[in-house]
Amino acid sequence: MRLVFEILLVIVIDAQNLEKSRSVWVEQGLVRGKIYKLGEQQVQIFRGIPYAEPPLGDLRFKLPIRKQRWEKEYAAVDYGPPCVQFMDFHKNDRYSGPNMPNESEDCLYLNIFSPYDSEDESKLYPIIVWVHGGSFLAGSADTGIDMEAVAKNLVFKGITLVTINYRLGPFGFMSIDYGDHVEGNFGIYDQKLALEWIQRNIKQFNGDPSSVSVMGESAGAAAISVLGLSPLTRGLVHQVIALSGSSTAGWAIHRHGMNAWDMNNIADFIRCNKIIPEQDLKAVLNREASNKKAKTTEHCNLQMNVPECLINGGKMNAKDMLECFRKEINFSEPLFRHALSAELGVSKMVVDGQLIPSSGFELVSDYAHLPLLTGVASREWAHKRPEFYEFWRYENMSRSKAEEAVKKLVYNSYASRLPAKVPNATLNLISNATFLRYMQDVDFNFDMPGVVARLQDLEADIEFVAPCQSEVDGYVKNGLDVFAYSFDYIPKGNIVEVDKRFYELFGDNQVTVTKKDASTDGYELTAFHGLDHAFIFSNGYSSNFQIKPFTKQDRAMSKVLTTMIANFAKTGDPSIEVFEWPSYSNSSAHYVSIGLHPKLIKGQLHFPAPEFWNHEAAMLAKYTLSESPLSDEEVSELTVEERKQLNAYRRAWWGLWVFVIAVAVIIWVAIICFVVKKGKSPTSKPYDNIVVNRE
User: Which pTM value belongs to this model?
Assistant: First the structure.
């Protein structure tokens, strides 16, 4: 009922603000959008424009191709279907939720929000291309997008905004290893094709193709980081705005070992060679209605069926396996998609030698050539609950349990940033150093919240802060304009988080779980991952949380943040009227703490975290990597003669130690005897020259 009401409300608002339709010519044909009037200003909105041929049939798991011409006028008045979702982050999103059931492989659409001036239809405006986040597994071009807020926050500041869909999960990020080269990154190639479409057509919508800023958050930030660096996107991108994400992060680009989303690895889960752990399957099922659970018992890993080509195909080369995927594997069962994502984790880009020639700091330092605005939230993972770190109930904390939690984060998060695999002994050494740095002042007997808070900071530093600083360093090395920030604003109202789940107690009735966070005398909220989105694209809403109430002060914060972004997109300088923002340099390292009253903070971003992860921990890992691995010949069995010599050396070694210890004991006894004898000597005098004053 509520959903119906919200849809009707949107329709009523559309009717009240709709001025007229507008049709323009693009390379594919005629396209029609709508013009809305808000106050005294107008915005033209075109939604659901296809920029590529549907990646279906023979085009599955391939690079996208340009959309062909259409004959009739194309009505761009509704969002296109979202790409197939591999996690359910956004199924209840206020703005994109109603469209999520339409998810499809035919999903390569973009949307345009641009100023409209009936008296000067030739005026061009700088462009921001928004790439959504969601772990490369979820999200869409309309996720968290309030059209009225977008108009007021960006469009009416003289910005043309373009939002795009791109393929997710294996459709967009499955890697295919041919032995001599690797293919993948289809979702990033989708974004590249959208940028090419923008270059050829955006003038018709009053966008300036010579001023294109790419902007993204989280996984979207990592994607636009690559778009700003890749040699294949030269001329398509002119500035980069990365919010809480970097291509240098370990979760962004795969570096060593088998990629979790490798085609053969995925095939092993589909053909039941690999089984997803029972606890992960249970977690997926706990979020579904019983009528869906009942359909999951036929095959392994919550699948309804196993494709014939994987049952009868035997061992296949990469070409044959890819053909099998194209023809028979469709990932149509949501439960299997969610279970697979829970097991494999974030989808990653891969080094393919073309779009992405390398990874890490090397990629940035070799290819950075554009101005950059980038930063992180105050405490990115501050909203992560204890269960993320396997603390299922409040309990007294022990040192060993905290050490184990730190070790898991180092193994799972930091190791993936390294250019090659290192021995466990090295990771253990880094874990010990990490524990001392993050946990030395924690009361391990009682302070579970304190331990969790430090784990949150540890994970955020590895995954966001250190990579962001690394990207900044790479751009600065190349003499480019860089503006770094920390989003530190704390809303005055409650942050209300809403989640909808199924519980056995309530059967198939979905239960809404509401959690409220607010600053109190003993507890203060901190800005976390994705909070800034609520001040850019909506009035306090982002994905599944809402700032209530969204106060006058919160609106003022929204104006400060969006003006900074708009000014950077227009001029390359994010300074605003009340605050001048100097660029970052080696001689003047600083970042801006973004709040109602921005402040300049000297030093690296959230120092000393980047220094530890980018230099100290990296130095330990680098020393190990500099040692050449042992070959089989170097660890072959010893001969009999060699064994005799080794035993002789061992006996001599132990004999030497026995001799040293014996000499040390003799010397020590001699010293003691000398002191005792000296004390009994009649020539020794008592210390009667010491006077103690008593008052």
Answer: 0.85
| Cα–Cα dist 567/483, whole Å | 12
Backbone dihedral region for residue 139 (phi beyond 0: left; psi -120 to 50: alpha; all else: beta): left
DSSP SS3 for 224: helix
Helix or strand run (H / E) with residue 677: helix 640-680
Amino acid making up residue 251: W
Q: Which residues pair with 405 in a beta bridge?
A: none
DSSP one-letter code for 584: P
**CB atoms near residue 498 (< 10 Å):** 14
Q: Quick one: DSSP state of residue 445? A: T
User: pLDDT tens digit string along 486-496?
Assistant: 999 999 888 88
Among 243, 212, 5, 208, smallest CA distance to 125 is for 208
Q: Are 346 and 87 in contact (CB under 8 A)?
A: no
Going from the C-alpha of 208 to that of each of 125, 155, 213, 668, the distances in angstroms are 5, 13, 11, 86
- Give the model confidence (pLDDT) of 217-261 as tens digits: 999 999 999 999 999 999 999 999 999 999 999 999 999 989 999
Q: Is the peptide bond before 549 cis (omega within 30 degrees of 0)?
A: yes
- 426, amino acid identity: T
Distance CA 92, CA 89 (A): 8
- Cα 144 from Cα 532, distance rounded (Å): 12
The answer to whether 284 and 302 are in contact (CB under 8 A) is yes
> In angstroms, rounded to a whole number, what is the distance separating the alpha carbons of residues 542 and 148?
15
pLDDT in tens, 562-612: 999 999 999 999 999 999 999 999 899 999 999 999 999 999 999 999 999
